[in-house]
Please model this.
Amino acid sequence: MYFGLSEEQNQFQDYVKKFLSDNVTVDEIRKIANGDDQKLHEDIKSGLMNLGLSSLLIPENYGGLGGDLLSAVSIAQGLGTGVGPISFAGSYVMAPIALSLGGNDDQKDKYLPKIASNEIKFGVGLSEYVAAREDSGIELNKGKASGKALFVIDGDDADFFILSDKGGTMFIVDKNEKGLEIIQLTTVDKTRLYLELNLKNVKAEVLQETENNPFVIQKVIDAGRIILSADSLGASETMIEKAVSYAKERKQFNRVIGSFQAVKHMCAEMAADLEPCYAMLWQAAHSFDHDPDEARLQACQAKSHIAEVAKMVSKKATEVHGGMGFTDLLGLHYWFKRIGLNRQILGGPELVREEAAELQGFNQ
Amino acid sequence: MNLEYGPEYEDFRTEVIDFCKEYEGISFENTSSKNISRSEWQKILIEKGFIARAIPKEYGGFGGETDIIKSRIIATEFSKAKIPGGMGGQGIDMLVPTLLEWGTKEQKQEYIQPTLHGEMIWCQGYSEPNAGSDLASLQTKGELKDGNWVINGQKIWTSTAQYSQMMFCLVRTEPQAPKHSGISFILIPMDTPGIEIRPLVDMTLNAGFNEVFFTDVTVPEGNIVGKRGDGWSVANSVLGHERGSLADPNATMNRLNTLINMMKEETIDGRRLIDIPSYRDRLMQVQGKVMANQAHSLRLLSSKINPGQNVKLGGMIQKLVGTELRHEMEALAIDVLGEIGTLYEETPRLKENGSFQFHYMYFLGLIIGGGTNQIQKNIISERGLGMPKEPKVQEAS
Model:
């Protein structure tokens, strides 16, 4: 019995962490967030992609590594620690899973190898299935899609989008297709790009196995929720590390502030609440891979619980930094904002808790 | 990640399940047809190696290897089959492991077997009115006179003192030494003249604790465990055993299920409590925390059988997180019951024997006891996160 990330998964995560800490300082994050340095952003993206992120979840017979969700979680945690300014949850986790489970053989042949080799990139928009806000929502009619998709994940530089109608039928849209309008949304977290898509009779390639079968979209959403939680967990880990090391250096009243119990106890509370989240996350990923009966409940509860803990950490860690925590100069806010964004994507805590209750038959 | 225990353990699980079937319905009640005494049951469990597994045969144990997976399988299957486990208490859970580590051969022979068999009950004499969180400032005095320890002073928060044959006690024997190195660990028979026990009623209205007063209590010199002045180290090895046991994750899961079932049965205006969205959301929040805790306990288990798996911080948080969670869970049960939730002791309309109010208060007691949760936060921040200690201040008046 072994409960945890494998040696290989830990190593993979360490590569990601090391790449980010060596190459992506707060100054670089700021340049990327402000859109001041396209080349820098491209270099960082390709540096991270060289670690093999795009092929991780592609099955081996389609040219990928055939990794499981737990491996993807180990990467996502690493990306979260350094607010990795690249696509992951949508392009390299949700899209490969959607295609592998929902595509027919032709569709798999057509797309999976090219995702693995990083020739094409997918964005994923399922917010309307989870909870349609404002005027969003898509209708599919005879291979044409019309409507609006909000908060499309990993939409930057995407060649294709995977979207769904309210019934959970998923389909692919080419970015160059007629009738598709792509609009950038600016969230608090400018290290990752989210999109709005307007579709007017756009040609849609339905993923065959998803027609009248919500099993696939639910799997894809579970995976997305788990990966977003891993990202927030990694970001929280860094915020605690930063708070602790700042508290050990900053002096007031002739003492380092980390010697005051008021400050120490905030740090202890953050650490104590975050620590069980690792196990919760890994168990949810393990169940996704091996225990389908438990997987959905665990994904919902992990998304909700980790979002709550991460929110608490993002607040307290900022407070430990005092006024500096509030500045752009220190850049702590990039982690704060990543946590704030992940919390809402694919269902905020109240929504996923309600789903968890439904799964157990608690609201009749 | 591999959550399988392997065929050897599945065979063991089958053995435990068969055992549970054999003793199905067993009870300590006289009225039951399957009546058995606690001490008889204790001996059966030791013989099977289901408890006292790693304690040598010569001291009354099973004489096997420690195997925490087997312990977990036993706990799980016993809980499922509603079969009573072995005895606990401060003697078995705390003193026995301490004697195994620090005791002389004679002490082990004299005390371990009767303790394991439930024939010798122990209480713990640590806290004093002026030595709570700052335990090492304790003042109960022990002087060596004519080959005996003569003990004077007072202990407090002593659970089970009134039923105990023995106390393991921290006593200041080296008044000149620095505070941590002036303490000795001494074993005191509770029928020694000069001991007075006064019950201390807590907020649950149970006399769960006592005050114990010592006036010229005289015990042989050989009743010391470890050397003179070693008491702090000896006691700390025991406290380590206590902290792990204060918030059992299996018990937490059972309690959550009790709460869920109650919320399905009780109603407001004919509507089930679980169908009321605000209550349901709080329930889901608590369930999330329980699931995180369950997973965390698996990770800790794994770290104990896989050398090199680092969960240093993970072990330190258990008391803090576990006790706060239980308290929160009981508070939720009371809130969803509303006015009904305030009923206590013997009264019409009482739910679950008043256990929600009882545990709500009891776990507040555990948040304070066993090293307050504020002390736990000091430990987590200092030993876990490497933050500096609060600087010593000159004595304030």
Summary: The first strand of chain B starts at residue 122 and ends at 125. The first helix of chain B runs from residue 7 to 22. The beta strands of chain B are 122-125, 141-145, 148-155, 166-172, 183-189, 195-200, 209-220, 224-225, 267-268, 271-272. Residues 246-384 of chain B form a domain with the Butyryl-CoA Dehydrogenase, subunit A; domain 3 fold (CATH 1.20.140.10).
